[in-house]
Amino acid sequence: MQVKKGDFVTRKSYQNDTLFKVVNIKGNTCYLKGIDVRLYADSDISDLEIATDKEIEELKIEVNDDGEEPKLDRSEFFYLPGKILHLDGDSEYLDRCLEYYKSHSVLAIGKKIREVDIPLKIRDLLMEYKPDIVIITGHDAYFKKKGNIADIRNYKNTENFVKAVRECRIYEKSHDKLVIIAGACQSNYEELIKAGANFASSPKRVNIHCLDPAIIATNVALTERNREIDLVTLLEKTKYGKDGMGGIISNGLMYVGYPR
């Protein structure tokens, strides 16, 4: 079958383990974008197989976002979850995250901004929207051929994410007043945490699910203020657990009021 732009495909050399969409074709090279994983890749057209409807359903990554969400007594109390500002370099992933927030009744503002531009624009956006939680994400990758895993210059966008986190901490120094979630696939976790992020990817330099930052943000937003979040349990809700996401122990950001 002839592979064309827009097809859903898998790579034979990777045991057909990840579902991609073909976003462009030049000569015999296809440029691919992960459906669930925040990953860009390229492949020779001969290595690709078009996914069947059954394979598409089987390869879609389910996220374990259940767990201990707060039981809200809406007959007596009212609730004001933390407000989220989500900055994403990818509009399709951003839209999926915004749908996720909506399904959990959490207020979120989403902005599609190129990763390189986020550090330049983030402080104005923080002042405009005054969020409790900010997400800085998009696409990233560690380029092994460039060398040292600790050097942020050897990553696609970690340096941009680090700069953006630092801008956030100039705006608000307290980790309790502004929760920052930063990084994407294979990002330099240590540098993002040192820059001031509460949560970041990726401790083991693995890919992350497109909803992982949203899952963490939603749980923080729906946990009562001053209530400590179980960090281990929270990370287990993400697709690859502590390999993909990590962070510091943080408190929730939801106000609870009475009477309703």
How would you characterize the overall build of this protein?
The protein is an alpha/beta fold and 260 residues long. It has 2 domains: 8-59; 78-257, 3-Layer(aba) Sandwich (Rossmann fold). The chain has 7 helices and 13 strands. Strands 8-7-9-10-11-12 form a 6-stranded mixed beta sheet, with helices on both faces. A 5-stranded antiparallel beta sheet has the order 4-3-2-1-5, with no helix packed on it. Helix 5 (189-195) links the parallel strand 10 and strand 11. The longest helix is centred in the middle third of the chain and has 14 residues, at 158-171. The model has no long low-confidence stretch (mean pLDDT 92).
Which overall shape is indicated by the principal axes computed on the Cα atoms? Answer: globular
> For the largest beta sheet, what order do the strands appear in spatially?
8-7-9-10-11-12
Radius of gyration: 19 Å
Main sheet makeup: 6 strands, mixed
CATH topology of the largest domain: Rossmann fold
Helix content: 25-40%
How would you briefly describe this protein structure?
With 260 residues, the protein is α/β, with parallel strands linked by helices. It has helices at 53-59, 91-103, 118-129, 158-171, 189-195, 212-221, 231-236, and strands at residues 8-11, 20-26, 29-34, 40-44, 48-50, 78-80, 84-88, 108-112, 133-137, 179-182, 199-200, 246-247, 255-257.
